[in-house]
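INTERNAL TRANSFER SHEET
From: sequence group
To: structure group
Subject: ABC transporter substrate-binding protein

Please process the attached sequence and return the structure record in the designated field. Keep the field labels unchanged so the import script can parse them.
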Amino acid sequence: MTITRRLALGTLAASPLLAAPALRAQAPVEIVFNYPIAVGGPITRIIDGYCEDFARANPGFRVKPIYAGSYQDTLTKTLTAMRGGDAPQMACLLAVDIFTLIGEDAVLAWDDLPGTDKAWLDSFYPSFLENSRTAGKTWGVPFQRSTVVMYWNKEAFREAGLNPETPPADWAQQVDFAQKLTKRQGDATSQWGMQIPSSGFPYWLFQGLTTQNDVRLMNAEGNRTNFADPKVAEALQYWMDLSMKHRVHPAGIVEWGTTPRDFFERKVAMMWTTTGNLTNVRRNAPFPFGVGMLPAGKRRGSPTGGGNLYVFKSASAAQREGAVRFARFLTTPERAAQWGIDTGYVAVTPAAFETPAMRAHVADFPPAAVARDQLEFAVAELSTQENQRVTKALNDNLQAALTGRKPAAPAMADAQAEAERILRRYR
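Return from structure group:
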């Protein structure tokens, strides 16, 4: 064979076509990440940016976000895919889905994954970890977390002769303020004093009232509820009285999704909603507004809420390593701080609030610290075995009471009876 022929063969052997298998072996490990939001909007741009930044910092891995709709849609699609053998490797799902995901044998405990350590898992706010741990294991890493807070229209306060910088401190004062803020001519109300949404997540808003009345709705094991406790009925009666007795709150079902718009349009002067609406309110309220902790009953209190990061058993060893890297990437103090600044969700670690960016943000916009400060009084969001069925039993009976179809105590007794029927086999 001539030297020219040997060189030609050598060149062919080194061509990209024949080297392709080696190149494919070096392709980044892909991690499918189901995320609870509809396609489009600022949150998707933020998450897309995080995934791109992660890929640049970790060239051996690539996170592919799948935007799957609401939390409920995302859970349904994720579990359906898992049963069909096509589960994602990672998802952001509600913290309260913990018992459902464990019951489905779908997820892995973070403690058992490579690259985790106790210091990192313990670095989150303890109140967020209440819905993230059970049976001595951490199943969810806090990420998109929230509490319920009060927003008020400072112009409306001033017009009503109230101090625009001071929200109601307790239940009695909340009614008093709401009466002063309600604008009514005959039977027509142009501005309600306050509004607590009762669609979508009525149990979550209701937990603000039950916590303030010093009662918890469930045990830590998720197999027992306390809906029939007299303190629970008392809390519901207070909510009912806002519309039926004091006439400071719209009657019937108040929509979750339209409550911020009602606030912007001056149809309501005070509203309870998630701290996740903070950026939305800051951008869209056409008047100065305040943000405060929920008024106290027997005590202060709010449930925590929002989403945790989960790793699915479908993940390979390499994907599990990548999922841990991505979770740690998302929850670094600097990135958790920026996430809170950009979205209004609560930065999930104390260290995030010590970053220069968050310190500057809180100095410029003090409401950003309200939800953090309320964590001292927060409790775990309602979460049980077969959580969707138990929550539906409570929601249905809350709405029956708020629409006048049932008195408070019988409604809660009916919710408890249904919860008992569902949960008895888990004890």
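Handover comment: The radius of gyration is 25 Å. The domain at 27-145+305-373 is CATH 3.40.190.10 (D-Maltodextrin-Binding Protein; domain 2).
Transfer complete.
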